[in-house]
Amino acid sequence: MRRFLFGIPLVVMLLATVGAFAAPESSTDIRNTQAELRMLEKDVSTIKEHIAIRLDAQDKRVGDLGQITAQQANHIAAVATQTTYLGYLITFVAFVAGLVTYLSATRRAKAEAEAASKQWFEEKANSLLKRIEELESEALRAREAIDVHSRDVKDHADRAHRDMDAAAATVLSRKTGADGSEQGDADANAAITIREASEALKSKAENDFSPDDHFARGLDEYLAGRFDSALAWFDKGLAVASSGPYSNASSARLLYARAVTLRQLGRHDDAIAACDEVDRHFGTDNAPALRELVAQSLHNKGFTLGQLSRHEDEIVIYDDIDRRYCTDNAPALRELVAKALYNKGVALSQLGRHEDEIVTYDEVDLRYCTDNAPALREQVAQAIFNRGVTLGQLGRHEDEIATYDEVDRRYGTDNAPVLREQVAWALFNKGFTLGQLGRHEDEIVTCDEVDRRYGTDKALREQVASALGAKGFTLAQLGRHDEAIITYEEVDRRYSTDNAPALREQVAMALVNRGVALSQLGRHEDAIATCDEVDRRYGTDNAPALNEQVAEALVNKGGWLSDLGRTAEAIAVFNEIERRFGADEHPSVRAIVDQAREQRGRLDDDGHDDNAGPEAN
C-alpha cells in the first residue's frame, strides 16, 4: 500500500512534464506553467504530507492490526485448547451417553428377549416339557445301560477268573481210580478255557505279564504235557509275584501248580516241599481262596506220598485235611474233604486194611449222601462202588452184589457222564460176581443190560466191550460156543477200528477167545487163522496188555498145530514166542513164555528132529 501511495506524485509529475513539453513555448504559458507547477508542487507537498500522515496512520493501523492479529492468534490458540478439552468432554459425554444407551438398549433387549422367550416358552411349554421328560428318560436309560455294562464287564472278568480257577482245578487234580492212580484227560471245557486264555496272551509282551498271565501260559503247557516248560512259566510267575503288589492268592496258585508239575516230572520230594511251602506261607490265612489252595496242596502232597508207597504218611495228610476243613461249608472244601476221605480209603486198601477201608467209604456216604452237588455225588458213588469191590475181595459176594445194586438204584437214571460210567462199571462188576457165584444166566442178563443201556454211548465203549467179552466167555463156559463166537465177532465188528488202548485190548482178547471157541467146535484151522489175525493186528504193539494177548494167541496156535500133528510148525511157533517175549518182565507174559517152553520141551522129548520140515496134514 505504501508503495502505491508513493507512486502517485511521480505519476502527476510525469503527466505535468508531458504537458509542458506539449504546450506552446510562450512566456505567459511558461509562467502559467510554472505557476501551475508551483501549485502542483504545493499540492504534491500537501499530498505527500497527507500521504505521509495517512501512511503513518496506516502503519499504526497495520501495527494495531498485527497486535490484534497476534491477540487473535492467542485467542484462537486458547480457543483450540478449549476446543480440545471440549472434544475430550464431548468424547466422554458421548461415551457415557453411549454406555447409557448400550445399557439401556441391553436392558431393553434383555427385557424384550425375556418377554420373547417367555412368550416362546409359553407357546412351546408342553412340547418342551415333553422333550425334557424324554431327555431325562433317555439319560436314565443311558445311565442304567452304563451301569449294566459296567456290571457285565465286572461279571465277565469275575466269571473268567472263576472259569480259569475251575479249569486249573480240573487240570491240576485229575480223578483217581480205585487203585489211586490218575485216569483220563482234563475236562474238555477246562482245556478250551485254558487254551483260549493262553492264545489271548500272544498279543501281549511277556515283559508286561502278570503272575496270572504266567499261570495261564503254564497251564497251557501243562495241558499239552510239556511239564518242563510249564514249570518254567510257573517259576517266572512266582518271580513276578514276589517283586510286585500282587495278591497272596496269585503266589499260592503258582506254588500249587508248581508242586503238581514237579510230581508229574517225577520230582516227588521237590513236589512235597512245594506243598509244604504253600501250607507254611498261607496255612493260617482264612481267605476262602487261600484256604482252598492250601487244602488242594495238602491233597496233592498226600497223593504224592501215595505214589511213593508211603501210605501211612499219606493217610496222616488226609486226616489233617479232614480235621482242618470238615466243618467248612464252602463247596470246594467240602469236595476236597470228601476226596481226601475217599483217597484215604484207597490208601487203606493198599495197606490191606480192608475193614478200615470200608468204614472210611461208609463215612463218605454218611456225610455227603444227601448233598446234590455233582462233585459230591460223584465222590459218594465212587466210595460205594469201591466198598463193593472191597467186599468182593473179602469174599462177601452177596454184600458186594447188593452194593452194586445200590449204586444202580441211586444213580442209574442220572445223566451225568461220571455217574453213568460208575453205574456201567457197577453193572459189569455185578455180572462178573454173579459168574463167580455160578449164576451164569443172571450174569448174561446183566451184561445184556449194560449193552442195552450204554451200547450207543461212545464215552462208555470200554464198559460195553468188557460186558460183551464177559458174556461171550460165559456162553463158552456154558458150552454155547456158537453164541460165544457171535458175541466175540460183535466186539470185533464194533471196535476193531477204535484206537483207544482199552478197546484194542478188548478186541484182541475177543479174537483170542474166538479162536478158543472155534477150537472147541473142532474148527482148528479157523482157530489158527484167528490167532494169525491177532498177531497181524497187534504183533508190533508194545502195550503190555496187547503183548499178553499176542503171546496167548501164539501159544494157543502152537498147541493146536501140535494137536493137528504139525509138530515142526508148533515148535517154530514156540521158538518165536521165546524170541519175541523171552525178555518180557510182565508176570502174565512170563507165564505164557514158560508155558511155550514147557510145550516145546514135551515135543522135543517125543524125539522130534528140530531140523525136519513141516509134517503133512
Tell me what the structure shows.
It is a single chain. The chain is an all-alpha fold and 617 residues long. It has 22 helices and no strands. It has helices at 2-22, 27-172, 188-200, 211-223, 227-242, 248-264, 268-282, 288-307, 311-325, 331-350, 354-368, 374-393, 397-411, 417-436, 440-454, 461-477, 481-495, 501-520, 524-538, 544-563, 567-581, 587-605. α6 (248-264) packs parallel to α8. The chain is rod-shaped and about 225 Å long. The N and C termini lie far apart (183 Å). 35% of the residues are buried. Mean pLDDT is 83; it is low at 2-6, 8-12, 14-24, 175-186 and 609-617.
Number of strands: 0
Rounded mean pLDDT score: 83
- The number of helical segments is 22
Instruction: Please give the radius of gyration in angstroms.
Output: 62 Å
| Overall form | rod-shaped
Flag low-confidence runs: 2-6, 8-12, 14-24, 175-186, 609-617
Largest β-sheet summary: none
The ordered H/E elements are HHHHHHHHHHHHHHHHHHHHHH
Helical content (DSSP H or I, runs of 4+): over 70%
Q: Report the end-to-end length measured between terminal Cα atoms.
A: 183 Å
**Strand percentage:** under 5%
Q: How would you classify the helix and strand content by structural class?
A: mainly alpha
